[in-house]
Amino acid sequence: MRVKAVIAYDGAAFYGFQAQTTTPKTVSGALSRAAAKLGIHAPIVGSGRTDRGVHATGQVIHFDLPSHWHNDLGKLKTFYNRLLSPHIQIKTITPVDDTFHARFDAKRRIYRYLFKSTPPTPFENLYACHLHHSDPEKLRIALERFEGTHDFYYFHKKGSDPGSTVRTIIRTDVKAFRRYIVLYIEANGFLRSQVRMIVGAATAVMHGTLTLEQIDEQLAKKAIHTTMLAPPQGLYLARVIY
């Protein structure tokens, strides 16, 4: 039986989601080791990768269960969470069709970036970014430049072959609450480090070191004006929609 699980994790404790040969400290690795202790040896498949230090409140995975777990998903969730604590939490486990695929069936993904206009406290340093001289309206205007369907070839980190680099940004938004500013980006899919590069460009516009016209030129692949990545702290994979 195949199941879909929605999970949350503290990305500060890991070197990214994807399993690596150089370190066991990945989210995927932790999930697989805990699953093996429960007699589950099927691959853990995620909706997508997150960079080192990036968090998730709504990452989605799927895996196949051996028969001894088919009738007690509540108990499985309890035992799995005990093994994953304190840095990963299984929020829900539900049965799905055997053809369900966490990555390829995803229609939309939503990322959230948490910024603070004053220096974060020691307890916030890994979970929010300090945004100097913040101006939410300028951020909103810059992010809107990325909405629509574009070839984001100049707005992703190279190193792997994603196939097409065309993606559709469905919605961007900026919300201010007291000393916090929250950015939202929703798309049909994201390239490697694309969110961090988009937010890096938007904050550069806010600070006056990049123009809206330069963003347009880079989106049109006429010139590269910035490759700056926003820090991973404060970035969350918030939701995956199917």
TrEMBL record:
Keyword tRNA processing: yes
EC number: 5.4.99.12
Domain Pseudouridine synthase I TruA alpha/beta: 5-105, 142-242
Keyword tRNA processing found: yes
Enzyme class: isomerase
Catalytic reactions of this protein: uridine(38/39/40) in tRNA = pseudouridine(38/39/40) in tRNA
Keyword list, A-Z: Isomerase, tRNA processing
UniProt binding sites for substrate: Y111
CDD domains: PseudoU_synth_EcTruA (cd02570)
Record HAMAP family: TruA
Chain's role: Formation of pseudouridine at positions 38, 39 and 40 in the anticodon stem and loop of transfer RNAs.
Entries under NCBIfam families matching the protein: hisT_truA
Complex formation: Homodimer.
Name assigned to this protein: tRNA pseudouridine synthase A
